Amino acid sequence: MxxxxxxxxxxxxxxxxxxxxxxxxxxxxxxxxxxGTHVGCDTTQCGCCVVHVDGVAMKSCTMLAVQAEGxxxxxxxxxxxxxxxxxxxxxxxxxxxxLQCGFCTPGMVMMGVDIANxxxxxxxxxxxxxLEGNICRCTGYQGIVEAIMDASAVMxxxxx
Amino acid sequence: MHNFNYHRxxxxxxxxxxxxxxxxxKLLAGGMTLLPTLKNRLAAPSDLIxxxxxxxxxxxxxxxxxxxVRAMTPHAVVATSADVQKALPALAQLAGNIGDPAVRHxxxxxxxxxxxxxxxxxxxxxxxxxxxxxxxxxxxxxxxFFQGLFETALGHGEIITEVRFQIPDRAQYMKFRHPAxxxxxxxxxxxxxxxxxxxxxxxxxxxxxxxxxxxxALEKSFTPASVAxxxxxxxxxxxxxxxxxxxxxxxxxxxxxxxVEAMVG
Lengths: 160, 265
Hints:
The complex is a heterodimer of chains A (160) and B (265).
Chain A: E1 3-9, E2 12-18, H1 24-31, E3 50-53, E4 56-59, E5 72-74, H2 88-95, H3 105-118, H4 124-130, H5 142-159
Chain B: E1 5-8, H1 12-21, E2 25-28, H2 34-39, E3 47-50, E4 60-63, E5 66-70, H3 75-80, H4 82-87, H5 89-95, H6 101-106, H7 109-115, H8 122-128, E6 132-135, E7 139-141, H9 142-145, E8 146-148, E9 151-152, E10 160-166, E11 170-177, E12 184-193, E13 196-202, E14 209-210, H10 212-220, H11 224-228, H12 245-264
Parallel strand pairs in B: 1-3, 2-3
Antiparallel strand pairs in B: 4-5, 5-10, 6-7, 6-10, 8-9, 11-12, 12-13, 13-14
């Protein structure tokens, strides 16, 4: 029995028919064809699938599409401006070489934005602690942490 | 994951009616344990009844000598609540160290308590802070609620609506956090209520338990030295890939002492 779902993804109203068991990440990737959100572990550990649900970071591999009914979802595709200008967090990852293979990067960037939103001015220790649900097997995290702290300062300045 | 029928409950009575009307249902709270369990096909319920749309199951209040956390309140909300931080900082600190930030945004106290995972943090808070688990049918003392490995006093058709924590004079939760999962390898909640003390241990046994000998020693003298030499038998504890039962027994003493140190420090 398929279920109708409606939600807002990156500012656009979307709808679809899903099985009850369809995961939010499957809906995003396979129905909406937004393949920037990745599935790394599929067990709620690696954070490659992090998206924002009503403005906070959640793991879309551990959420049903039907649980996102009526919610506002932001994926990595929704961060940059329409003219292609990168979000400060994306720009900072680029500037600090916060990625190597790039597989974890969408989740890292989305979590980075979430950290910057929740904890403006967080120190390095806090940022590292906050990243415990996102796993990167290439970089050693150094560039990622620097990028998040840098972007956090830029986002802070833009807010004030 | 096998497929199932999905229902969105409008209120607690509606959820109870759906529980009664379906074949092999499960309640869906935050889903942080249930959905991975379904993915692994360790469970295959016929129906999932989602509690997320029930507004009355969310929120926190301080009522007299109790902190009341409604069942669908996510860990992140408990951790950052100014009311909890003021009235019961040990609870805020415990909630803020569950899993990771994305998990804390979705996982709920009701789901955690109903699951009685042997390594979950909230059971230690419930038992250590003399909580009452309120359901749609009755009130259950935390001491009677947790009955074994993934076993609670909840009956069929029973839905947790809120958890009422008794505000202690002081309390501290200390855990040896599994570095990958964030679960408690051993977690100890120590609380002081006047001349009474409570020591609740999670992570070590099949479910949360109290250490009567430590409580008696603390009631005589509330100092780290009182618990520093009290050993818990490893016999009933869990040994697994992470560590042996003997090591867990050792950690209980160490973390109980550290909790008391932090309280009297």
